[in-house]
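Sequence in, structure out.
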Amino acid sequence: MRMRKKKHLDERMLECSDYLIKTEVGERDSRVAEADLKAIDFKVLFGNANPVELEIGCGKGGFVCAKAEQNPNINYIAVEKVSNVIVSACETAKSKNLKNVKFLNLPAEYLLRYIPNKSIDRIYLNFSCPYPKTTYANRRLTNPKFLKIYEQLLTQKGEIHQKTDNMAFFEYSLEQLSDCGYTLKNISLDLHNSSFEGNIMTEYEERFCKLKMPIYRAEAYKKCAE
């Protein structure tokens, strides 16, 4: 079921236009993404040469805005395909007057069109939709088709950081990452009862925490980066 368009969405998006990177995805065919490059110049976009990190599926932006506040010397790109949701993320960034975060309103399939190769130091996958039905496995953000995209985007020492509440999806992700040549580290089967420091909770995570549900977390990097 398609989400109903929020009232005054167009006006709200326009008011946040300084935080939204202009895109062209009207053709609805991600196969042209790599062939018709619209690569972003991060130095021009942010006005500096600081490292860039990417969150895919940023939701309402709580995580990426907190990261941007804590790390003013790191630039952040946050991706969210649902306009109804990303507008709230943009408004949060604007209310905090953050200068080191920008947003892309598009599906992850289009990333190769806009993000330069070997330009991202870290990718965050926070509580991505697990798509539990096997027939939808190719939509999971840790499916090999997406992992191949991430490999092109990540710098030599780049990493993928994942968090989820879904054990089956987590197991699937670890298997796919390993099969695609990633090395796993800092795996946690109960993040909030672990020794991990510096965790920033997302909106979903706060909800799961209140329900005392375990949070699964892992980091991955390519073996060639060793």
